[in-house]
């Protein structure tokens, strides 16, 4: 199906409200020094249907975006959007990204594809976590979804239950970032955006020493389990990303989700 984003940009999607929600988050990634210039190369790990990639193409001239999405049903829509918007500059790859080249079983949520993950334990070990995430969205919706504020938040648990219904598993191929950098002859990565529902540490472990210097800036959604934010900060500092900012989005105060913005000096 198709929908339009806030400015009328057409986009293929699986769920219209989710496409608008994904668009709502885009500008939140481009802050604290993160910016897109002409001829930039962007890697989007956990690209979903490609809303972030489409917006990056609109930010500057001759931007090249490499989008990684392992789940076939989501990838099919991502591919449609690359044909609709890419003009050859939106490169889509049917892989997840991890510490080794392998395969993994993902849990796919058809009613809320953006939360599909290879780490469902983050929801299963805390059954109320998903309800809290829904509740925060209801309190702080995108402008074009203002009507969510009219729904009493007491119904957040019921809505969450409906969204995770029909989950299914699918085996997907994983690649390391370094293997893909080498395969595609990538000379630089101006922005590496990682939003892969709990697999962010594995993504960084798949970057070999020779490739860290070609990455200029990063935005990473981190699930702060077992001190992962501090662990990530330490690794990024070691690799030369001395400018770091940690932020938790409004409404997610009860969650373990944070964003790390990292740049080289």
In short:
The chain is an alpha/beta fold and 265 residues long. The chain has helices at 16-29, 51-59, 72-85, 121-124, 128-139, 156-163, 177-184, 200-205, 228-238; strands spanning 2-4, 10-12, 41-45, 64-68, 90-93, 96-97, 102-108, 168-175, 191-194, 217-223, 243-247, 257-263. The termini are far apart.
Detailed description of the structure:
This protein is an alpha/beta fold. It has one domain (20-263): Vaccinia Virus protein VP39 (Rossmann fold, 3-Layer(aba) Sandwich), CATH 3.40.50. Helices cover 32% and strands 23% of the residues. It has helices at residues 16-29, 51-59, 72-85, 121-124, 128-139, 156-163, 177-184, 200-205, 228-238, and strands at residues 2-4, 10-12, 41-45, 64-68, 90-93, 96-97, 102-108, 168-175, 191-194, 217-223, 243-247, 257-263. The strands form 3 sheets. It has a 7-stranded mixed beta sheet, with helices on both faces. Strands 6-8-7 form a 3-stranded mixed beta sheet. Strands 1-2 form a two-stranded antiparallel ribbon. Strand 4, helix 3 (72-85) and strand 5 form a beta-alpha-beta unit. The longest helix has 14 residues, at 16-29. The chain starts with a strand and ends with a strand. The mean pLDDT is 87.
CATH superfamily: Vaccinia Virus protein VP39
Strand-residue proportion: 15-25%
Query: How many individual β-strands?
Result: 12
CATH architecture: 3-Layer(aba) Sandwich
Overall pLDDT: 87
Largest sheet properties: 7 strands, mixed
| Class based on secondary structure composition and strand pairing | alpha/beta
Tally of distinct domains: 1
- Give the helix level as a range of percent: 25-40%
Count of helical stretches: 9
Query: Radius of gyration, Cα only, in angstroms?
Result: 18 Å
| Alpha-carbon distance between the two ends | 43 Å
- The low-pLDDT segments are none
CATH class: Alpha Beta
What name does CATH use for the topology?
Answer: Rossmann fold
Based on Cα principal axes, name the global outline.
globular
Order of helices and strands: EEHEHEHEEEHHHEHEHEHEE
Enumerate the strands of the largest sheet in spatial order, edge to edge or round the barrel.
5-4-3-9-10-12-11
């Amino acid at each position: 199906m198709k929908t339009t984003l806030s400015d009328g940009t057409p986009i293929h999607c699986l769920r219209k409200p989710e496409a608008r929600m994904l668009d709502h988050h885009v500008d939140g990634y481009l802050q604290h020094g993160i910016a897109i210039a002409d001829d930039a190369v962007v890697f989007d790990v956990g690209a979903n249907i490609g809303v972030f990639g489409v917006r990056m193409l609109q930010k500057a001239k001759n931007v090249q975006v490499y989008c990684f999405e392992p789940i076939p049903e989501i990838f099919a829509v991502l591919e449609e959007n690359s044909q609709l918007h890419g003009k050859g500059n939106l490169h889509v790859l049917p892989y997840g990204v991890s510490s080794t080249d392998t395969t993994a079983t993902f849990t796919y949520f058809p009613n809320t594809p953006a939360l599909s993950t290879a780490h469902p334990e983050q929801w299963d070990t805390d059954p109320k976590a998903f309800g809290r995430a829904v509740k925060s969205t209801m309190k702080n919706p995108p402008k074009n979804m203002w009507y969510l504020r009219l729904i009493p938040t007491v119904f957040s648990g019921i809505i969450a239950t409906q969204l995770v219904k029909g989950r299914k598993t699918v085996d997907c191929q994983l690649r390391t970032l370094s293997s893909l950098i080498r395969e595609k002859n990538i000379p630089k990565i101006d922005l590496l955006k990682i939003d892969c529902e709990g697999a962010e540490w594995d993504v960084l472990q798949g970057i070999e020493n020779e490739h860290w210097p070609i990455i200029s800036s990063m935005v990473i959604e981190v699930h702060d389990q077992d001190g992962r934010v501090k662990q990530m900060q330490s690794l990024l500092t070691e690799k030369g990303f001395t400018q770091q900012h940690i932020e938790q989005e409004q409404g997610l105060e009860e969650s373990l989700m944070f964003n790390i913005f990292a740049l080289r000096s």
